[in-house]
């Protein structure tokens, strides 16, 4: 009998989640009004250490809402990392502003402050650090640059729930932060997102724009164009239950990362996630980098794992390699995109599973290693 297939990720939904979702169903409040939305927002703000949190339909709409609320538009520029999920760049483009691509730090995979500094222009209105794969960006260095040039910081924390920078949770380190609750994230609402901030004016405007910019005084009167970026009470009920377990989820991800570190034969040329001494990673994804990989070698490695019943995924494509944002490649980001692979990580993954994955990884890499 063959070993069972191990997926890259899967959510853990238990009795508490079902209890609250059924409660929301029975209440009749199944759309964008209901007690679980308020509860989820309040609890998430408390968790992140921010004054406000605003639930939205997904992380992408959260990023767009943040930038639209801040008034970005044509002629403006937002500096983002070249290595990120495409939603980061798209959210900027949706406003009419231009995403300006910066290179990344080789260890954190997040924005390289020196690259950011070299790209500042009179048109720069915001810097958007992405806490990639759960590791926070170097926020002090980026904040110093932003403050010196009158630029706003918007954190893309879609993958970094619970990650910490110098003891502070991400999401409250810039003007605002945005999280995703997609099914493979640390906690999930199926689809969903959250905007976090300490800025009352930003929060109030974002809240209005989220709901078609409807007047609070005159129902169905709209003074400007808004968006339908609301979350449902059903999704929020799931989120409330998931958030109750976030510490447990993060502890397990750290434990799984430790298992991988013990089992995979790392060298100077084969590396796993690196964590700076000022950071606490959420370990959203297990990251394996192999220096001798090119794109074809990486894909062959993933195919070999798949043939043994183990899922994996490549690092994101760089934005500079995509048709709509194409430009000359940035050296660190371009190389990382070629050599990086994500391995399975989810709550129910066992130590035995990780030993199986690691044994296959070690064997395949040994076969593929150039002489």
Which terms would index this structure?
2 domains, 12 helices, seven-stranded mixed beta sheet, four-stranded antiparallel beta sheet, globular, 14% strand, 371 residues, Aspartate Aminotransferase, domain 1, alpha/beta, Aspartate Aminotransferase, domain 2
General description of the model:
The protein is α/β, with parallel strands linked by helices. It folds into two domains: 15-102 and 110-243, 3-Layer(aba) Sandwich (Aspartate Aminotransferase, domain 2); 246-368, Aspartate Aminotransferase, domain 1. It has helices at residues 15-27, 35-48, 59-69, 86-94, 113-119, 139-149, 200-210, 233-243, 246-263, 295-307, 331-339, 351-368, and strands at 52-56, 77-81, 98-102, 124-127, 152-156, 164-165, 168-169, 176-180, 193-197, 270-271, 279-280, 286-290, 313-314, 340-343. The strands form three sheets. The chain has a seven-stranded mixed beta sheet, sandwiched between helices. A four-stranded antiparallel beta sheet has the order 10-12-14-13. A three-stranded antiparallel beta sheet has the order 7-6-11, with no helix packed on it. Helix 3 packs parallel to helix 4 (86-94), helix 3 crosses helix 7 and helix 10 crosses helix 12. The mean pLDDT is 97.
